[in-house]
Design brief:
CATH architecture of the largest domain: 2-Layer Sandwich
Structural class: alpha/beta
Strand content: 15-25%
Order of helices and strands: EEEHEHEHEEEHHHHEHEH
Distance between the termini: 32 Å
Number of helices: 9
Number of domains: 2
CATH class of the largest domain: Alpha Beta
Shape: globular
Largest sheet: 5 strands, mixed
Strand order of the largest sheet: 3-2-1-4-5
CATH superfamily of the largest domain: ATPase, nucleotide binding domain
Radius of gyration: 20 Å
CATH topology of the largest domain: Nucleotidyltransferase, domain 5
Number of strands: 10
């Protein structure tokens, strides 16, 4: 049987990425990040789409070179159709369509969230890794999404809980901005939390029924605490930044873990996976590992390189669709919001 070579293209937010997979084995995964957004404290959609236009050709070219193949060796092109920023998605979608048309290759649309979950099935040569067994529960946490997903198969995924307002990553970034941290604040809070006291401060933990999440109340609670303390001590944030970060991180992790534990018990599933940018958070990983020992879970933590937006996850999702001959036409239109 001939090998399948999938080119994946990811441009849903502010990272331009291209990857090549030989079947499910990673050959290359190139990511061009955009530093310009740091000055604005968040992603500026218009600037993001312009940067994608500059980055996409050299990123794809580099991915093919690192993979050691010619574009004529490709079997198909997989790309992120959504959800994400519309302008950014249009750049990746248009490029993928043009390249597929010029090479007469099948085109495969991929749901960005499916990609995050299926990143667990990427094979890296020389690194043995146990893959999740179906069905499993995936906690998908990022800057734009916080979801509990019951994964029945590579094709069938069911959202059993999700945020009703802000995502966990958004809470990290917005609270980090209040602390005077640069965007993205999540990794900086993680580093500060390592030297802070996680029980120094208590913040709101919204009580939402079922398996849904809410982080807006926590954000408000954090803001009010800073306001009240700063009224009497102008140096409060500077003096207690590490403790504030540790307490904030502990609260977010507790909120996430509470629903994950409940979902595992309700569905009687002990196969647990993490996905998304926030799955790189050391506090969350530690909490999952400690809970796994207590509950007898089998856990699957993604490699840090696969936690952020990347094209390898799009390529592996595309690979499974290729096996089913599940292709899309040139009329496929990107979408900014959609559920799994």
């Amino acid at each position: 049987m001939n090998s399948t070579y999938i080119l994946g293209i990811e441009s849903s937010c502010d990272d331009t990425s291209a990857a090549v997979l030989k079947d499910r084995t990673l050959l290359s995964n190139v990511i061009a990040s955009q530093k310009i957004h740091e000055a604005y404290g968040g992603v500026v959609p218009e600037l993001a789409s312009r940067a994608h236009e500059q980055n996409i050709v050299p990123v794809v070219d580099q991915a093919l070179k690192q993979a050691g193949i010619n574009k004529k060796d490709l079997s198909a092109i997989a790309f992120t159709l959504g959800p994400g920023l519309m302008g950014s998605l249009l750049v990746g979608t248009s490029f993928a369509k043009g390249l597929a048309l010029s090479l007469r290759l099948p085109l495969i649309q991929v749901n960005h969230l499916h990609g995050h979950i299926l990143a667990h099935f990427i094979r890296v040569e020389g690194k043995e890794k146990t893959e999740p067994r179906f069905p499993f529960i995936c906690l998908l946490v990022s800057g734009g999404n916080s979801q509990l997903v019951l994964v029945h198969s590579v094709k069938e995924m069911e959202i059993i809980g999700q945020t009703i307002d802000d995502a966990a990553g958004e809470a990290f970034d917005k609270c980090g901005k209040m602390l005077g941290l640069d965007y993205p604040a999540g990794p900086q809070i993680d580093r500060l939390a390592a030297i802070g006291d996680p029980v120094s401060f208590r913040f709101s933990k919204p009580q939402i029924p079922g398996f849904d999440y809410s982080f807006s109340g926590l954000k408000t609670s954090f803001l009010y605490r800073l306001r009240d303390e700063m009224a009497t001590n102008g140096d409060f944030i500077r003096e207690r930044k590490a403790d504030l970060s540790a307490s904030l991180q502990a609260t977010i992790v507790d909120i996430l873990m509470d629903k994950l534990i409940k979902a595992s018990k309700e569905y009687k599933i002990k196969e647990i996976a993490l996905s998304g940018g926030v799955s790189a958070n050391s506090g969350l990983r530690k909490a999952v590992e400690e809970t796994a020992l207590k509950k007898g879970w089998t856990i699957h933590l993604p490699a840090l390189s696969f936690t952020t937006d990347n094209a390898a996850m799009i390529a592996v999702a595309g690979y499974y669709k290729y096996l089913e001959q599940d292709f899309c036409g040139l009329d496929a239109a990107p979408y900014s919001r959609v559920s799994i």
